[in-house]
Design a protein that fits this description.
The chain has eleven helices and 15 strands. Helix 5 packs across helix 6, helix 6 crosses helix 7 and helix 7 runs parallel beside helix 8. Strands 8, 9, 10, 11, 12, 13, 14 and 15 form an eight-stranded mixed sheet that branches.
């Protein structure tokens, strides 16, 4: 019988940890957190009134991905179908929590676990070098829980922002490196782009980057650029209280807009529909999209992501931010599936519901549609011995 674990199961869960893992064991405190407060599910399998296995599934806040974080089976029960039962249960609980994909990591030298995952329909989609405490490498596996999904994904470069306020430059580097591999993302370029594109001020701390600044930085580097913004007011200013700061942001934006006009970069004062964005992506362009991070990270700040694919149900994005505190890894930020309806809601920032998209494509724009041309998490390893 498989059921949801309770606090009364913690002693049995700790025994399984000790039997299954030499390092990186989940502690009593961590199990208590997983069972009471975390965005997670802990399931146990009982046979003859004994807990003989458990599986821990983590749910990303706003994306449609669940992560099989840990799978442990009592030594005397291995090879008797417990692991398979628990994996099926993990798929079911992920689906019931509206997740369409289940992902996991596994040691490259764990042939038995790899064979099991592949038999159960998981596909290898990435790797992680030096992942485990003993420096072993890991394969990344994924299973679609909705067989009809056929995402159209592009191999979009990924770069992790190195500072809290450089999501825009990180997103821009991803797009540029995808369209022209000669553009190599690095921290020096990240900071240079931020200096070129910054709004100077925001609510507190360093200023972020608005659509005009990112578009200008891309255009100066020879990319075809088209900007879509809803409304003609000052971007990202509604949370700024100081009138002096607002005036500086207005002047910076006005100057950037003048430079875009000189360079002939089209600025469309209208929201770009998801269907139109998908069409431009299909034509070869890379969209940078401003989102509100509240639904993903419970923080009220503007955030830039790069679209990496579409299907009938989801928009896939590369996110330059990695939420280590939630146990995520860098690969969790690549091809993140977000339900189309939720993504549309995310693309409205602040009280004015600002919508901003910067479309990049290779070469000079022909005036038509852009793109018409040219923490580190604890590593868990199922049935590790």
């Amino acid at each position: 019988m498989i059921r949801t674990a309770t606090l009364e199961d913690i002693d049995a869960l700790l025994v399984l940890e000790a039997q299954s893992f030499d390092e990186d064991r989940i502690s009593r405190r961590q199990f208590r957190h997983l069972l009471t407060r975390a965005n997670a599910a802990v399931l146990v399998e009982e046979r003859a009134a004994q807990v003989v296995g458990d599986v821990v599934v983590l749910f990303s806040r706003a994306t449609s991905v669940a992560r099989l974080y840990s799978l442990a089976v009592a030594p005397q029960m291995r090879g008797r179908g417990v692991a398979k039962d628990l994996i099926h249960a993990a798929e079911q609980v992920a689906w019931s929590n509206h997740r369409a994909y289940l992902r996991l990591e596994v040691r490259k030298d764990n042939a038995r676990a790899i064979a099991l995952y592949e038999r159960l329909g998981f596909r290898r989609f990435g790797e992680w070098t030096d992942y485990y405490d003993d420096h072993a490498d890991a394969w990344r596996y994924e299973k679609s829980l909705s067989p009809e999904l056929r995402p159209s994904l592009r191999k979009v470069a990924w770069y992790e922002q190195s500072l809290d306020f450089t999501c825009g430059p990180a997103a821009l580097m991803m797009a540029m490196a995808t369209l022209d591999p000669g553009h190599k993302p690095n921290r020096k370029l990240e900071l240079r782009l931020w200096r070129e594109a910054t709004t100077v001020f925001m609510t507190a701390g360093h200023g972020g980057c608005g659509p005009y600044g990112l578009a200008l930085a891309a255009a100066r580097r020879g990319f075809a650029v088209r900007v879509y913004v809803s409304g003609k007011g000052v971007h990202l200013v509604d949370s700024v209280r100081s009138e002096d700061k607002k005036e500086v942001m207005r002047l910076v934006q006005e100057d950037m807009r003048d430079q875009l006009r000189v360079l002939g970069v089209p600025v469309v004062h209208a929201a770009l529909s998801l269907e139109a964005m998908e069409a431009q992506f299909a034509a070869g362009a890379i969209p940078l999209v401003l989102i509100s991070s509240w639904q993903i990270y419970a923080e009220r700040f503007p955030h830039w992501v790069v679209v990496s694919g579409f299907d009938a149900s989801f928009v896939y994005v590369n996110d330059p931010y990695v939420d280590y505190e939630e146990g995520e890894t860098k690969l969790d930020s690549i091809h993140m599936p977000i339900a189309r309806e939720r993504f549309a809601a995310m693309t409205r920032y602040g009280r004015v519901k600002l919508q901003a998209v910067v479309i990049l494509s290779a070469g000079a724009d022909d005036g038509g549609a852009a793109g018409a041309t040219g923490r580190a998490s604890i590593a868990r390893d199922p049935e590790k011995r």
